[in-house]
């Protein structure tokens, strides 16, 4: 199979989806990988490493989209989707539910979109999003600590003295809580009643408060909080707006809000996406950090994690083709969001207000 690895063009995005080791594994199976020149430089992987692994380096970005399978990190950007072939597969983060214009543009191309964010492993855990969420959760505390410094607009509280509230008890929330506790912070985690919250409560023990989220508990926790981490993710759906302006006012001037899941819209009604070049803004006196590709700030670590997570799925798609790969792996099938101009994921279809096509009827009938 002919595979393309574009160079990422989103603001501040330095990650690469496949490392040279992954390219070598694909090359050993007889697949041809076109790598856009410089695609791995931001993560510390020069073109020479890709050439040694068997890749074909191309100078034209369009050549990496004129392939059977495009593998990239971030959602496809304006200008990139015009290069996609109608018969090609795109394997990347997609976030279609929160970007209707991109969703409609991709539907018009009539290609196949498989989203990193909903691919599952055998235990139904998010196999690709999970590692990125852990990195983002750890980073959220580092970023929050920096923004709390007075010269950055924060209230001048050291992280070890800070009251930190984490909304969400999944991978990102758990990583943020563990990092914050290691630095001596006062930590409260609010999450939906269920296994994740229970397991996190057991893991953290008495060193942190874990609370089932409800309006009263949320307001009590946020009152005077120094740093709030938004870590709520509903696969395929928009993030619920849990924080109002009243909540932000209760936090007080100089507090910091870090929105990890801004790709889904974020937990605050004041949240909107920012970039690595312009990461923050202030609403209600609260410093907001809403960068959608946070792990791009640690591109080498993040690229290795992504490449290791996606390689088994890339090999399966390349070796077997789309239909057989999806038949053999329900977890990969959970990542299919569109095919042939039709939406195949129920949550995405609901967000877009369109019909959801049954996967079996669309792919497995032939």
Characterise this structure.
By secondary structure, this protein is an alpha/beta fold. The chain contains 13 helices and 15 strands. α4 crosses α5 (171-182) and α9 packs across α10. It is globular and about 55 Å long. The two termini are 21 Å apart. The model has no long low-confidence stretch (mean pLDDT 95).
Features:
8-stranded mixed β-sheet; 7-stranded mixed β-sheet; 15 strands; 366 residues; globular; alpha/beta
Outline the fold blueprint.
Blueprint: E1 2-5, H1 20-28, E2 32-36, H2 47-52, E3 56-58, E4 69-71, E5 89-92, H3 100-109, E6 112-115, H4 129-147, E7 163-167, H5 171-182, E8 186-191, H6 195-204, E9 209-212, H7 215-222, E10 227-230, H8 245-251, E11 256-259, E12 280-283, E13 286-289, H9 299-320, H10 322-328, H11 330-333, E14 336-339, E15 342-343, H12 346-352, H13 359-364
Parallel strand pairs: 1-2, 1-4, 2-3, 4-5, 5-6, 7-8, 7-10, 8-9, 10-11, 11-13
Antiparallel strand pairs: 6-14, 12-13, 14-15
Short description:
The protein has 366 residues and is α/β, with parallel strands linked by helices.
Give the strand content: 15-25%
**What structural category do the secondary elements indicate?**
alpha/beta
The radius of gyration over CA amounts to 21 Å
**Roughly what is the average pLDDT, rounded to an integer?**
95
Shape: globular
Q: Please, how many helices?
A: 13
Helix content: 25-40%
Sheet with the most strands: spatial strand order: 3-2-1-4-5-6-14-15
Distance between the termini: 21 Å
Q: Biggest β-sheet: count, sense, barrel?
A: 8 strands, mixed
- Could you give the count of β-strands? 15
Instruction: List the secondary-structure elements in sequence, H or E.
Output: EHEHEEEHEHEHEHEHEHEEEHHHEEHH
| Uncertain segments | none
């Amino acid at each position: 199979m002919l595979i393309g690895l574009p160079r990422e063009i989103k603001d501040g995005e330095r990650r690469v989806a496949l490392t040279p080791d992954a390219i070598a594994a694909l090359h050993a199976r007889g697949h041809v990988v076109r790598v856009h020149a410089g695609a791995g430089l931001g993560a510390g992987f020069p073109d020479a490493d890709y050439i040694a692994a068997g890749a074909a380096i191309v100078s034209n970005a369009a050549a990496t989209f004129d392939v059977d399978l495009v593998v990239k990190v971030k959602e496809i950007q304006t200008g990139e989707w015009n290069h996609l072939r109608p018969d090609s597969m795109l394997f990347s983060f997609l976030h279609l539910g929160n970007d209707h214009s991109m969703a409609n543009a991709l539907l018009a191309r009539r290609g196949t979109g498989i989203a990193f964010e909903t691919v599952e492993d055998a235990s139904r855990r998010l196999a690709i999003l999970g590692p990125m969420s852990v990195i983002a959760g750890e980073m959220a505390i580092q970023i929050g600590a920096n923004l709390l410094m007075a010269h950055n607009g924060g209230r001048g509280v050291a992280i070890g003295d800070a009251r930190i509230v984490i909304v969400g008890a999944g991978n990102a929330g758990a990583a943020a809580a563990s990092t914050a506790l290691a630095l001596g912070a006062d930590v409260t985690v609010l999450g939906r009643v269920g296994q994740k919250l229970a397991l996190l409560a057991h893991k953290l023990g008495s060193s942190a408060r874990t609370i089932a989220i409800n309006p009263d508990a949320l307001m009590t926790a946020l009152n005077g909080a120094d740093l709030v981490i938004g870590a709520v993710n509903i696969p395929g759906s928009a993030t619920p707006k849990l924080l109002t302006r009243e909540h932000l006012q209760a936090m007080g001037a100089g507090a910091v809000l870090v929105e990890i899941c801004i790709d889904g819209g974020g937990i605050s009604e004041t949240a909107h996406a920012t970039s690595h070049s312009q990461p923050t803004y202030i609403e209600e006196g609260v410093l907001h950090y809403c960068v959608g590709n946070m792990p791009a700030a640690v591109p080498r670590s993040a690229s290795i994690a992504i490449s290791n997570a996606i390689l088994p799925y890339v090999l399966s798609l390349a070796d077997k083709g789309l239909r057989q790969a999806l038949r053999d792996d329900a977890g990969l099938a959970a990542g299919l969001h569109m095919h042939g101009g039709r939406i195949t994921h129920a949550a995405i279809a609901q967000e877009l207000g369109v019909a959801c096509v049954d996967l079996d009827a669309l792919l497995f009938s032939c």
